[in-house]
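As a warm-up, study this chain.
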Amino acid sequence: MIDSSREPVITRVESDDDVRGILALQQKNLKKNLTPEQIQSQGFLTVEHKFSVLKAMNGAHPSVIVKDGDMVVAYCLAMLPQFRNDVPELIALFDTIDKIDYESQTLKDFKYVVMGQVCVGEGYRGMGFFDGMYQKLREELSAKFELCVTDISTNNSRSLKAHARVGFIPVKDFHDAILGEVWRVVVWNW
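Now compare it with the structure written out below.
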């Protein structure tokens, strides 16, 4: 829970401990570790990252996190296209990006960054961290990238609503046979 003597801060990944903090928070919010009631009301995560891949992703560009003291309580993972084959669950997203028409050209022809995953921990939801992390990500990356792209399970209504609030628009739904779900590709034009 929040330590009332200090405010949680939106910052960037700076250490291996931050990466481990992301992974710990991820474990608490994976669909496989939640009850059906939690999934319905709070949303869920599907992809489980490996430390080595997450460390490399953050080496290429540090992700945005919220820290309460030393504890990571929220994160927003910037994933550059060069990592498309490093997270097997996201290969279908990248393959779909390669085929989507957007504003009279193929999405892959834009300079884009993928939102590899976003999570706000229990006890920190509804405090503006979701929007704040995305705004910081945009501030840091909009000079290099035209678009932020991600996909969201159509079963995750909380995440769909939150992404729409930030400015993401839906561009295509696709079925991922590996994960057995329908995913909605959304784009935030920077």
